[in-house]
Amino acid sequence: MGPGALANLLSALRLPASPHLLIGLEISDDAAVYQLDAHTALVQTVDFFPPIVDEPYTFGAIAAANALSDVYAMGGRPILALAIAAFPEDLDPAIVAAILQGGADKVAEAGAVVAGGHTVVDREPKYGLCVTGLVDPARVTPKVGVRPGDVLLLSKPLGTGLITTAAKRGLVEAAHLEAAVASMLRLNRRAAELAAETGIRAATDITGYGLLGHAAEMIRVGEVGLRIVAGALPLLPGALEYARAGIAPGGLGRNRHYLEERGVVRYAGAIEEAWRLLLFDPQTSGGLLLAAPPERADEALRRFADAGEPCWPIGEVLAGGGIEVV
């Protein structure tokens, strides 16, 4: 669902509360957090979607990486996953097995296990996971912990939505799709570990609502805003070219309309239309957007570099409100 439709739906719900539920729908974070004792909380999330690549095993692995990412965004460690799948009755069982194996192998790479799941019959294949993780309640990294002066760091380049859309239209260069697939397959595990080591206090992962959609969720609480430098954004090979050609997924327009209609986004100076598309491009298994305290930002960048993990400073947190793109 688009951000507007989902917000309207959730606003009508009346759900029971619990003192043990540290993060639930009232915050709408990347995952729910339920406290078990003074030092342990469960992190729970669910995510699934139709194929975005043709190769079944790779689709399963990407879907699993995408679902696992929500646990990492909360500062947690995945321990258990249940598969959620829908397949046509006439789909080759070998294809189904490959999808499930791709997901199971990616979960194993994360140090967790797939312990079961649920399937239904549907005309369009869909696959994903319900993931459970553990986190120390004192080390949860919610979206809304940003403060003025924090430096925004991004752990993966943008452009997966544009590139996979180009692939669906038969317009993608093989090398561009290969780079996008490699990015989507890479777990956010090490990035989350490095963020925890540096004392980063707020994080989210960039997925279906695009960079600005998820960034906007970080400033819903408190008198804070963001400044994002378009020219500092890391891009996957080919992403800018496809944006300039107007090859964009349908969800991009919904993301953009939702924020621009509400005046959340302000463009300072001439921001090329292609860059505006990239700001709202729906990502699959995208990177972590981290808010590093200013006194720890350089240390965070050094730690990422020493570990061979990519990380780019893309902006800062300001007093005020909204998102300024410069």
Polypeptide structure, described:
- The protein is of the alpha+beta class.
- It has two domains: about 140 residues, 2-Layer Sandwich (60s Ribosomal Protein L30, Chain: A), CATH 3.30.1330; about 180 residues, PurM-like C-terminal domain (Phosphoribosyl-aminoimidazole Synthetase, Chain A, domain 2), CATH 3.90.650.
- Helix content is about 35%, strand content about 25%.
- The protein has eleven helices and 13 strands.
- The strands form two sheets. It has a seven-stranded mixed sheet with strand order 8-11-7-12-9-13-10, sandwiched between helices.
- A hairpin with an 8-residue loop joins strand 1 and strand 2.
- Helix 2 packs parallel to helix 3 and helix 7 crosses helix 9.
- The chain is globular.
- The model has no long low-confidence stretch (mean pLDDT about 95).
